Amino acid sequence: MQPFRTLVIAAVLLSATPLAAQDAASPARRPTLTVGGEGIVTAAPDLANFSTGVVSAAKTAREALDANTKSVADVIAAVKAAGVEARDISTSGFSVQPQYVNVKRDGTEAPRIAGYEVRNTVTVRLRDLTKLGGLLDDVVTKGANQIGGIAFDLAEPSKLEEQARIAAVKDARRQAEIMAEAGGVRLVRVISIAEDGAGPPMPRMMAAPQMAKRDSVPVEAGETEVRARVTIVYEIEPR
Questions:
Q1: How are beta strands 185-195 and 223-238 bridged, if at all?
Q2: Are residues 221 and 238 in contact, defined by beta-carbon separation less than 8 angstroms?
Q3: CATH class of the domain at 26-44+157-238
Q4: What is the DSSP letter of 141?
Q5: What is the pLDDT of residues 21-54, one digit of tens each?
Q6: Is residue 178 within 8 Å of residue 37, measured between CB atoms?
Q7: For residue 233, with 0-12 CB atoms within 10 Å meaning exposed, 13-18 middle and 19 or more buried, which class applies?
Q8: Are 223 and 204 in contact (CB under 8 A)?
Q9: CA distance 168 to 37
Q10: Cα–Cα 20 to 30 A to 96, which of 37, 48, 164, 165?
Q11: Which of 187, 178, 166, 179 is nearest to 230 (CA)?
Q12: What is the model's pTM?
């Protein structure tokens, strides 16, 4: 039985030898440095979105609807006359609602319908901002009694987003170099880069040339801001 035990032990030692040799040969893992960077790019917006509509009231639903239909048709015609294409005009709200009144103030009598109200709202995307002030004036002249939700945007934000990402990576690199210098270490290589999420273009309140004529609604577009954030992990080693 003694030779068999010796043979088994020898086999175990032989099978463990390559693993031990591999562990001894593998290099020690270097420490890492994690930094964040942010990039901000601004540009003048080149399109605007706004909603406009008509609220009409009459004794009957039919009368309210007829009046509203005519006014909204005039408003849409004014929008198209400004050069806005059909693809940039969409109905975003429509309703017909009865209007109630109380006959007696003490509330002993149930409310009755005194008339009807019709609302029709249209959302417009304008790609020529020089026409915005004049268009707002025109739609009111044609019968619009509601305008709201004016927002400025970029037709192609992807280019600014790319610039913001590049700026964010450069900012992270700069922060890493500062920390490495202060910590007495050297940046070896990048292990990973992750984007923390690029934010949508946001309006930035800054002075901009007035784009409306003096005889139209004054409009200020300001600037649109695009941000990007990244996290970079560097492998480091002592200097």
A1: antiparallel
A2: no
A3: alpha beta
A4: H
A5: 444 444 568 899 999 999 999 999 999 999 999 9
A6: no
A7: middle
A8: yes
A9: 5
A10: 48
A11: 166
A12: 0.68
Average pLDDT over residues 69-88: 96
Here the tokens at position 139 are 């739609």
State the pLDDT at residue 219.
87
Backbone angles phi, psi at 207, to 5 degrees: -65, 140
Q: In this predicted model, what pLDDT tens digit does every residue of 150-188 receive, in sequence order?
A: 999 999 999 999 999 999 999 999 999 999 999 999 999
Structure tokens at 166: 């590049």
For domain 47-153, give the fold.
Alpha-Beta Plaits (3.30.70)
Name 4's Cβ contacts closer than 8 Å, sequence gap at least 6.
Answer: none
Please tell me the predicted confidence (pLDDT) of residue 215: 63
Burial class (CB within 10 angstroms; exposed 0-12, middle 13-18, buried 19+) of 117: middle
Give the pLDDT band (50/70/90) at residue 92. Answer: very high
Q: Angle CA(26)–CA(30)–CA(32) in degrees, nearest 5?
A: 145
Nearest of 86, 82, 81, 78 to residue 141 by alpha carbon: 78
Residue that the structure tokens 């029709």 belong to: 120
Q: Is the dihedral of CA 36, 42, 46, 47 positive or negative?
A: positive
Structure confidence at residue 206 (pLDDT): 39
Q: How far is CA 6 from the centre of its chain?
A: 73
Domain boundaries along the sequence of the chain: 26-44+157-238, 47-153
Percentage with pLDDT > 70 across the chain = 78
